[in-house]
Amino acid sequence: MNEAVAIAVASPGGLGGQYHGPGTALAKVFRQAVADGGRVVALHGQGPNYRCDFGVQDCGNPLGVMQIPWALRARRYLASQRQQVALLQTATLYTAPFLAALAARSLGIPAFGRIAALGADIRVPDWRRPTSLARLRRGLLDRLDGIVALSSDIRQELLDAGMAAHKIFLIPNAVDTEVFRPASADERAALRAQLGLDDTFLVAGCGGVIPRKGVKEAVEAVGRLTARSGRRLTLLWIGPVSDNTYPEAVAALAGEMGIADRVKLVGYQSDPSPWLRAADAFVLPSANEGMPNALIEAMACGLPVLVTPVSGARDVVRGGDNGILIDRDPATISAALERLMDDPAMRVRLGEKAVRNITERYTSRQIWHMYRDMYRSCGVKL
Predict the structure, then answer these.
(1) Is the pLDDT of residue 122 over 60?
(2) pLDDT (tens digit, 9 = 90+) per residue, 157-216?
């Protein structure tokens, strides 16, 4: 890449360095761009002390009614740097970054959006109503040079909303396979000792401790299996707690099922790889996703994965081949976990195929090249 030009990334939640799923995912891609000689600037809203692996420009508070002032500050920055900024990429297409993308286009700077969750940035039933704001947003989408869809489902959602196919680019999330990699038996034992974990069968889950991620379903599945078989296994959940109500309900359920000491909520971890590499299996009974980062990170670590067939998961997991697709039902999850515990050869086979799939298609370098090729196909000189 040409060091004289920069990629500006509109991500109010930051671009790595803290919990923000879309920004964290995009950071993995653009670290590779920097490694290839490029320059990246994060337009964020995390305050003057925020730091990440890229250049930073604080655009102020992005919440609520402050989204428009945030976008105006982003526009002022872009206007002052228009000779140096080659393009603007958004982390999502929520209001603030979407407005920043439109501002970039008004300045003659190519702008690219990114849909990070199915049914969130675009709601197809809403845009069909003549007076809806969603319809206005849908019309403005056509002004962007291109839109990244993280999954086949999101791509179809955009097509259903009338987007031109040539403007939609199916580009999944990326994995840093130097960090997320399988652990040997000795490495796993050392990691467990380091993290204070015992030698029971360890099932990891990862994501915010919120209802959508299915933490209670996973807890109930472990409780059912423990009660039915008498086996000792541990559920380890990695992810931030946004409020106390749901985690308290999770803890209460674990207590009712007699497995309070077998459920560990370890909170947000800036590097979840040691926890995943210490595990025996991974579970994500999510209700909705764009493309779950945690899933592909667990697969890169060689874990057999149990995941609901949500957006993104269906693109990555071939049921019974490189993972297991499950219903969002504790009884089903419990039965699938029991199969994994009973069949070590299956765990190895699923894990090996998962690693192969990730290294062939989802590394940071491969995904960065897909972004780079998208930009170049739209006439951007990098």
Answers:
(1) yes
(2) 899 888 899 999 999 999 999 999 999 999 999 999 999 999 999 999 999 999 999 999
Place of tokens 């939609």: 168
**Which range marks the domain in which residue 23 is found?**
6-174+363-377
Predicted TM-score (pTM) above 0.85: yes
DSSP state letter for 74: H
CA–CA distances in Å: residue 240 to residues 21, 87, 246, 247, 259: 11, 32, 12, 10, 21
What total of structural domains would you count in the chain?
Answer: 2
371 lies in the same domain as 347: no
pLDDT tens across 309-349, in order?
A: 999 999 999 988 999 999 999 999 999 999 999 999 999 99
CA distance 218 to 199: 20
Alpha helices in the chain, H assignment, sequence order:
21-35, 67-80, 95-106, 124-127, 133-141, 152-160, 185-195, 215-229, 245-256, 273-277, 293-300, 313-316, 330-342, 344-361, 364-377
